[in-house]
Amino acid sequence: MVDSEDLSLNISRELLQHNRQLSLIAKNIKNKIKSELASILKNDREKYEDFYKSFGRQLKYGIYSEYGSNKEDLQDLLMFYSSTEKKMTTLEEYVSRMKGDQKYIYYASGESVERIDKLPQTETLTDKGYEILYFTEDVDEFAIKMMFEYKEKQFKSVSEGELGIDADEKEDIKNEDDNDKKLLDYMKEILGDKVKDVRISKRLKKHPVCLSTEGPVSIEMEKVLAAMPNNAQVAAQKVLEINKDNEIYATLKGAFENDKDKLKLYTELLYNQALLIEGLTIADPLEFSNTICKLMV
Is 195 found in the same domain as 127? Predict the structure, then answer.
């Protein structure tokens, strides 16, 4: 209760009661809207998807802007494009289709569905038949970070350091040897602080190279933050991953043993290729072009 010299005790009580009434009205309106939207989603999917195209972003901001405090009210209304269904799906529908050995809700971020479809980071998960949600709006990852989990299933990006597939990770560790480590350490030395590490990939099947990340900031989040005015230059901790089963790896090993100068060119080229795959800007396009030309002669 609040009182003051300027307001009588009775007036202060009336004001507080009025505020409580407004809070109750707001709560009832919120519940009514949620109930109506849930009903449309269940009974008229096409109509709800039309609504979501216009207002889905606001629902996601509703989760992000209040640090996840509204997630219980909004999470069942969210929809994302599904890699397996080839259409929009809810989180509840995704979880209901999860495979028995699947630990996480997997997602991939990019500028468009078409762009994400081509990401090399999805290869292992796709081969296992795991469904991937496509995040194509700038708010998506920020909202999901605030949610943390859905129905006790945590969210995991296809670009995170560990995918949570135990058998594959143990096999990859077993296949590494001292010669691999020396090569990767040398490549890391070439790239310096551009990357946190250079590793044998646990997610690539066909593509020769990709970037993964460690820490809370993803590459897509880095792009969003960089586009903001007065940005704090927040950057993702990038890891260059090399596919040991791709023929390029034998070329790298040969250069490491016989031609360190050429290995430097290969390393810089692969790093810049990985940046382009992610839609990131190459620091020096002219140098990139010259590197390609040097390797052609």
Answer: no
Q: Which residues contact 215 (CB under 8 A, 6 or more apart)?
A: 236, 237
The reported pTM is: 0.86
The tens digit of pLDDT for each residue in 32-43 reads: 988 999 999 999
The answer to whether residue 1 sits within a structural domain is: no
DSSP class of 157: E
User: The tokens 């300027």 sit on which residue?
Assistant: 6
Domain of 181 in residue numbering reads as: 166-296
> Exposure string (b/e) for 156-170, b if CB count within 10 Å is 16 or more?
bbbbbbebebeeeee
The candidate with the shortest Cα–Cα distance to 274, out of 216, 181, 187, 215, is 187
What is the β-pairing status of strands 132-135 and 153-157? unpaired
Number of domains in the chain: 2
pLDDT of 5 > 80? The answer is no
